[in-house]
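Write out this protein's structure.
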Amino acid sequence: MSRPIVGIIGNSYEIEERYPVHAGGQMNSEAVAGVAGCIPLIVPADPRLLSVNELLETCDGFLLTGGRPNVHPEEYGDAPTEAHGAFDRARDAITLPLVRACVERGQPFFGICRGFQEVNVAMGGTLHPEIRDLPGRDNHRMPPDGTLEECFALRHTVSLVPGGVFHRLLGAPEVLTNTLHGQGVVKPGQGVVIDGHAPDGTPEALYIQGAKGFTLSVQWHPEWNAANDPVSRPLFEAFGEAARAWRAGAAPVPLAVAGE
């Protein structure tokens, strides 16, 4: 059987502020191919170019990537402000219904950073535009200077719910992760289980209770050094197994046993 196809949600950018592209980070593709064992396929997330139904029929799973644009606050009932930053409404129009469809079908997805936030919004949850402004919260944003290695360096722990899905999958009650985000989950959406927190209380890991398949999502960036990092590798390996099961027509793995 050929490798499963994982649709990697691309972001819209402009090269030199004049040439528009749909792009995805090379480390996402490397993690999908080298660790999950799947074929990486960059998805131009724009409803003018493709439909959610076409994606569901083409791909076996989806990687909801990070990205500089944020989910538009109108999607969770807030008015946009300067603090909300840049947006990508075309991506919103694809990913939010895609998440809901995958939850219903049991088709696997893995949410990362913005993808983590998209999952929460898709299920009816809310976000805060700048969590570092909240009392008692830390600055989780990417360092403004430094090498790529310094930007993606491990910076804080994540405490996992004892006996929860992430605890069982990762084999530890606490893990060390990087952090490169400004926004964060405030109100969890319907069925969203927060399964891990940063030391300041920021939600860092989630899954959808009662979903038929793999819905694990994290606020950090496990695609960095995924082949070698002891936290990243099992996440991508489990995601790859779920995509292979979907491609083979096997019953989706329930979240209750996904980490066993």
